[in-house]
TrEMBL record:
Subcellular location: Cell membrane; Endosome membrane
Species annotation: Medioppia subpectinata
Major location (coarse): membrane
The protein, known as: Dynamin-type G domain-containing protein
Keyword entries, A-Z: Calcium, Cell membrane, Endosome, Membrane, Metal-binding, Nucleotide-binding
Length: 338
């Protein structure tokens, strides 16, 4: 009796077992998603293929902001010490992307050497050329904070006449690459400098699609009194509303992230509470790293699927022998109708 039930159970596929989540994601990507991406030239249109280092990497925190908003000082405050290659000043001092990583031996790895290391996740950055690689470095130091996360400092975004100077590489393209792979994006604003320059606007637009990763920090808030802080906070929210174009109000962390005494300490308790909230959010990243990798892989799989449908549809419409050029122009003209 019930022999049909046992036969049906035998026909069921046995679920695949994996050692851990990361190993399972690697195997699924290589066996299911990567062949689809290669067949439909996904890497030519979107992002390069993922490597083992992308899955094995520690959670990354990306700091973005205009020059002199305290990005490098924020890292120093977080680590409670200097790191190799640190430069702090009122004018644009950090002119390069610096990945601050853990290592028992302190030192600096230049960008050209960094992108050929198969154990690190930065190999795809080689596509941005030598001009960018000369502005990329890895600072290594022994810090308990860096045992579980990696922090990426970025060049200060320029304003006024300075932003007309060509950097020599695609700055927003590099930001997009990092935004796709990091776990947190911290946007820093100076309480005295809320204007959003054209380059900063383009940089924020490059981060679209990763709104869940963005955290906003209003830094140097101890330099103004309570009444001015209220006005500055309102002005920042108004500026962000025009740039971010999201229906939700973004969470803004208010504080003064450096090791000097507060100038106005009326809001000391507020700053301490905001600091604990922000640092608590950062320390939670290692616990949620596997879920973030799973979420990003699902987004990539959906993008690859849509890309495959579009390419497949275009291929079907193309003639086999004659009239390819005219048909190609027609398909491109009506690409939005697919």
């Amino acid at each position: 009796m019930f022999s049909w039930l046992s036969a049906s159970n035998d026909r069921k596929r046995q679920p695949e077992l994996f050692i851990n989540v990361v190993e399972g994601l690697k195997r699924i990507y290589k066996s299911k998603i990567l062949p689809l991406e290669e067949h439909y030239l996904f890497h030519e249109f979107h992002s390069p293929p993922l490597e083992d280092a992308d899955f094995d990497a520690k959670p990354m925190v990306l700091l973005v902001g205009q020059y002199s908003t305290g990005k490098t000082t924020f890292i120093k405050y977080l680590l409670e010490r200097d790191f190799p290659g640190i430069r702090i000043g009122p004018e644009p001092t950090t002119d390069r992307f610096i990945a601050v990583m853990h290592n028992d031996n302190e030192g600096v790895i230049p960008g050209n050497a960094l992108v050929v290391d198969p154990k690190r996740q930065f190999r795809p950055l080689a596509k941005f050329g030598n001009a960018f690689l000369n502005r990329l470095q890895c600072s290594q130091l022994n810090s308990p904070v860096l045992e579980s996360i990696t922090i990426v400092d970025t060049p200060g975004i320029l304003s006024g006449e300075k932003q007309r100077v060509d950097r020599g590489y695609e700055f927003t393209g590099v930001l997009e690459w990092f935004a796709e792979r990091v776990d947190r994006i911290v946007l820093l604003f100076d309480a005295h400098k809320l204007d959003i320059s054209d380059e900063f606007r383009r940089s924020i637009e490059a981060l679209r699609g990763h709104d869940d990763k963005i955290r906003i920090v209003l830094n140097k808030a101890d330099m103004i009194d309570q009444q001015q802080l209220m006005r500055v906070y309102g002005a920042l929210m108004w500026s962000l509303g025009k740039v971010l174009n999201t229906p939700e109000v973004a969470r803004v962390y208010i504080g003064s992230f450096w090791d000097q005494p507060l100038r106005y300490d009326y809001n000391r308790k507020l700053f301490e509470a905001e600091e604990q909230d922000l640092f608590g959010d950062i320390t939670s990243l290692p616990r949620n790293a596997a879920l973030r990798k799973l979420n990003d892989l699902i987004k990539r799989a959906r993008l690859a699927k849509v890309h495959a449908y579009i390419i497949s549809s275009l291929r079907k419409e193309m003639p086999s022998v004659f009239g390819k050029e005219s048909k190609k122009k027609e398909l491109i003209k009506h690409l939005g109708n697919i």
